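Posting for a labmate who doesn't have an account.
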Amino acid sequence: MDIPQEVLNKFIVREDYLTWMNKETSIFAYLDLTNMFHWQNVLGWKFRIEDLIEQLFSFSNIKEIKVYYGLNERDIKNSEAFHNRIKKTGAILKTKPMKFNVKDINDSLFFQRRTLTLFDRPVKNKIQELIDELQKSGIIIEEPKCNFDVEIAMDMLDDVEKLTAIMLFSGDSDLLLPLERLKIKGRRIGIVGVRGKVAGELHTIKDQYLDFGRFYTGKRTYL
């Protein structure tokens, strides 16, 4: 038997999160989906974007949800299919083509500098041998890039007269300045994120921090 979303909210979502949300009359949610997908490694599970949007819309005072995610033109069929899943939820999708940046093949591709200091010389030599082989092979490693900081900032400022609070699903410090403008105008700031993935600057501006793992009630696929 499916459990009604209102019941899931009541018994799974932290009470202080619900208290903060219920004080507001018009909340707009902004979801930086690429940023959010990086949260899954910290959480140890994957979320379903459809379930999250359904949960958000179950709150009558959440008036609008905007999702920001790029279009992969190299895999257009699957990319458009994913976009259509988002659109069917009633959320507003903001998109643009992804760019692909070529990554340098060196030790930083595999390890953080701090981690490398833990290895002894024989291990470092093995790592360098692997890097040398990859470089000689001519392999090209690319990383998709699609930053929506400007679009999110502009939308939040454009929407300011229609909302009393926002829920920002992002931990990017580049959004600090537009958040400060919202704060000056008397709007409340809810930052949704996970441990270690929210910039310290955003904690200084927030009215409420919501840990995503203690808020999301949808299906979880464990890694």
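Reply:
Got it, the structure tokens are right above this. The chain has two domains: 5-98+146-222, 104-140.
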